[in-house]
Specification:
This protein has 12 helices and 13 strands. Strands 2-1-11 form a 3-stranded antiparallel sheet. A 3-stranded antiparallel sheet has the order 4-3-8. Helices cover 40% and strands 20% of the residues. The longest helix has 27 residues, at 255-281. Helix 1 (9-22) packs across helix 3 (58-72), helix 1 (9-22) packs parallel to helix 6 (228-242) and helix 4 (148-167) runs antiparallel to helix 6 (228-242).
């Protein structure tokens, strides 16, 4: 086993399940003023939501960064900006090594070494970086050495299964001839015996031999069978290391299991991406004026139809959803004039509640 976690089918499938679901996150530039949130720069939103660079979709970029995050516990991307500091593109990086440098003024830089031997030095302010197992190093996440023994054991078990399959193809019997035959004749007689008696076409299961040959079957008890409990235990250790369950990997999760996965795995990733890009794309003054990057997804889209119906039934009368928002939850297309809210007359404005009671249910 080479020690690369991605070479393990168990680890790769688990990381793929996380990255595929994280790829559904939608990055948005928002401006929040007095608790009122509006979408910001449409050009920046297109980079975050559609095409971060000419060679990747937004899904591809998030998938790649999340995969690096779980394989190396560090994920890097170059934030390409113009002379005015506006974002032009996001380029995920896969360095073979990196080191931090600083100039005499204390400005931090990242020096990356790539597989072809090329090096590039970028200002830390232009490098997107998220970390996992952020413990012993001041700037980087710790490596995956804790799970390597388990992956090594999984590889050994795979080799055992391969050996078990090959062992079933060993010699099953000896065909002994009473006279000496030339090598070509001996091979031809063997092939004829196999074709006549050891194939599925021999429905009777009986072999008829004359005195020139004698067949002696060999019993093979050396077949090695993998313990299913051991396989399950190894998978469970890998899944626990990544914080997911097997049902997430094979897509048989229930609504509650999806909610737990989203809150414990996807949401922390969304928070890391949001905080990192907010800090790297906006100055402190711009952030003070409410500018931020927010990664989120419509969680209700993954709920059951019964849950969606109950939520809409309870919340639409309160005016919490527009018509188009309700249609989006139900995976239906928007309609014209659907951005208005409906509200039942049984709900009164809190600021007019006292007036409503004093005037016998009449309000202005």
């Amino acid at each position: 086993f080479c020690g690369d976690a991605y070479e393990s089918d168990i680890y790769r499938a688990a990381v793929d399940a996380i990255a595929r679901n994280a790829g559904k996150l939608k990055g948005t530039h928002v401006i929040t003023i007095e608790q009122q949130r509006t979408d910001g720069d449409s050009r920046l939103n297109r980079i975050l939501q559609v095409r971060p660079n000419p060679y990747m979709s937004a899904f591809d970029m998030i998938y790649k960064l999340v995969t690096h995050y779980y394989l190396f516990n560090n994920a890097f991307a170059y934030l390409q900006k113009d002379d005015r500091g506006y974002l032009l593109g996001i380029w995920p990086l896969r360095p073979q090594g990196m080191e931090f440098l600083s100039d005499p003024y204390g400005v931090l830089y990242c020096k990356f070494l790539f597989s072809g031997g090329q090096t590039v030095t970028l200002p830390f302010s232009e490098v997107f970086m998220v970390r996992r197992f952020f413990n012993s190093n001041d700037l980087l996440g710790d490596p995956n050495t804790a799970i390597i023994p388990t992956l090594d054991l999984a590889h050994t078990q795979s080799q055992g299964m391969e050996a078990a399959i090959k062992s079933s193809a060993t010699i099953r019997g000896l065909l002994k001839f009473s006279q000496v035959l030339a090598p070509e004749k001996l091979k031809a007689e063997k092939e004829a015996f196999i074709n006549d008696y050891l194939t599925i076409t021999n429905a009777g299961g009986i072999a008829a031999l004359d005195s020139k040959a004698e067949y002696t079957p060999l019993k093979n008890d050396g077949t090695y069978v993998i313990d299913e409990k051991q396989l399950t235990a190894i998978k469970q250790k890998v899944y626990e290391y990544l914080g997911i369950s097997e049902k997430i990997v094979n897509s048989t999760y229930s609504e509650d299991e999806w909610a737990a996965f989203y809150e414990s795995v996807i949401e922390p990733l969304a928070l890391q991406f949001s905080l990192e890009l907010t800090d790297k794309l906006f100055t402190a003054k711009e952030q003070a004026f409410g500018n931020s990057i927010l990664f989120e997804s419509n969680r209700l889209q993954f709920a059951s139809n019964a849950t969606k119906t109950n939520i809409l039934k309870e919340l639409i009368p309160l005016g919490l959803f527009t018509i188009n928002q309700a249609l989006e939850i139900l995976n239906l297309p928007a309609v014209e004039d659907g951005d208005r809210r409906l509200q039942t007359l049984n709900v009164v404005d809190a600021s007019k509640a006292n007036q409503y009671q004093l005037e016998g249910g009449k309000t202005q």
